Amino acid sequence: MTLMHFQRYQTWYGTLFLCSYIFINNTINASSNIMEAQRDGVLPFMLWEPFIWEYSSAIGTLLLFPALIWLLKVSPFDWQKIARSLLIYSLSSIVFSLSHIGVMVAIRKLVYTVQDMHYDFGLSWFELLYEYRKDLWGFLFLIVVIKTYQYIVSQLTGEAAPISQGEDTPQNANLDRLLVKKLGKEFIIRVAHIDWLESSGNYVNLHIGERIYPLRATLTQLSEQLEQQGFCRIHRSHAIRLDTVESITPLPSGDSEVKLTTGKVLNLSRRYKEPFKTYLNSVTTHF
Questions:
Q1: pLDDT tens digits for 254-272?
Q2: DSSP one-letter string for 105-169
Q3: From the CA atom positions of the chain, what is the Rg in Å?
Q4: 244, 196 in Cβ contact below 8 A?
Q5: Any residues with CB less than 8 A from the CB of 54 and at least 6 apart, and which?
Q6: What is the pLDDT of residue 144?
Q7: What is the pLDDT of residues 191-206, one digit of tens each?
Q8: CA distance 257 to 268
Q9: Residue 229: which of 285, 159, 171, 283 has the closest Cα?
């Protein structure tokens, strides 16, 4: 159950880890600034200022984190075209740094204005170079964190793929078995054992009992491909195998609830209700 919970909320776990690390790290940096300044006996700044400096930087980093995930998704580093990739990531690091500076300076100016104080970042080539030096390291560090986390998740949860993916295999060929790679091992699962499908970004999560295996595909593509094996779309986010349906309960809203034999309850939206009835009637005489 713990692994299943992690699989379902892996994005939230990753976000919690990242936020915790960045704010703990920046809190330590802020307190270090205060302790070092106290060696001279008199603080040259207000006690709260180092925390504003560090936390504004942390907020800027967190706001830009989704952009890094997007970059790795649309333009993964290609070692076969290393010059092109280096150019893309170098330019991206500059954009990252300038955006980070813009966010943290805006936050600092806002806080200082509220306190009836003036904040001067000192916008010069030296300051920009100084910040870029730090931001470049943060940029590379975050990319390593993202790739490492994605690797750990893929090893823990496993990733499914059609066994036959050769050039001669039709794209719409019926799937019967899938190959799952998990923790350095490979094993086969039967499509007939899948209870339901769940859309998850660029992946479709295959639910088999309490286990979840991601498959790189779209829900539309996969549900159509598995239609002949008893799968039917019931919602924009999920599809089910008809053999797993235990009951269907109409709701006042016009939607319905579909309860599976595993105890899982899914929503049957009005948009898919008629196609679901039609498909169900073609298999059984009862709805």
A1: 889 999 998 889 999 988 8
A2: HHHHHHHHHHTT-------SHHHHHHHHHHHHHHHHHHHHHHHHHHHHHHHHH-EEEES---TTS
A3: 26
A4: yes
A5: 26, 27, 29, 30, 33
A6: 94
A7: 888 999 998 877 888 8
A8: 6
A9: 283
- CA–CA separation, 158 and 184 (whole Å): 9
* Predicted TM-score (pTM) of this structure: 0.63
Provide long-range contacts, Cβ within 8 A and 24+ apart, for 96-99.
96/64, 96/67, 96/68, 96/135, 96/139, 97/128, 97/131, 97/132, 97/135, 97/136, 97/139, 98/128, 99/60, 99/64, 99/67
The first and second tokens of residue 98, run together, are 């300038």
Q: How confident is the model at residue 214 (pLDDT cuts 50, 70, 90)?
A: confident
User: Is 204 in contact with 252 (CB distance < 8 Å)?
Assistant: no
- Residue 205's beta-bridge partner residues? 198, 214
